[in-house]
Here is the input.
Amino acid sequence: MKTALLVVDVQNGFLNDFTSHIPARVATLIERGDYPETLFTWFVNPEGSPFRRFLAWEHCATEPETLLSEEIAGFASPDRLFSKPGYAGISDELRDYLERGGIERVGLVGIDTDMCVLKVALDLFDLNIEPIVYVDCCASTAGLQTHLAGLAVLARNIGADRLRDAGLGGGTLAAPMER
Here is the structure.
């Protein structure tokens, strides 16, 4: 079975106290070499977007917010980086790439579990590509409860057996506490 790892929106603009641990975990997962290829999405919030019009949310419009986090940027080659405006999970370009490559299963990691990771997982499911969500390599900018809500929706819609632990969270789903 052909597989790939898809890193969803691990960008500077989405790093906060609830998500700042994710880039290092994702880098470790990539370095383990469990997947033959790693793909990346990145969100851009252009002028006139629904986020700006309906939510008055202006973030992730320009660099440095739109850049992939420093820990993972070196893994992303331009031919494996797919832009996605809005909640669009799988862009046409990414869908075509997956179909041409015969990818049948995709491991998912990234930010926000309750929004973009969720949408990407559902899109993969609809494309008949099995999504596997690594729960300890995902987080939500709104915090742990929102992350858990996203996981609950994912469990119901793609199957709880597709939510897995990559073994990188030290047994917790929450962001590490400052000591």
The chain has six helices and six strands. The radius of gyration is 15 Å. The mean pLDDT is 93.
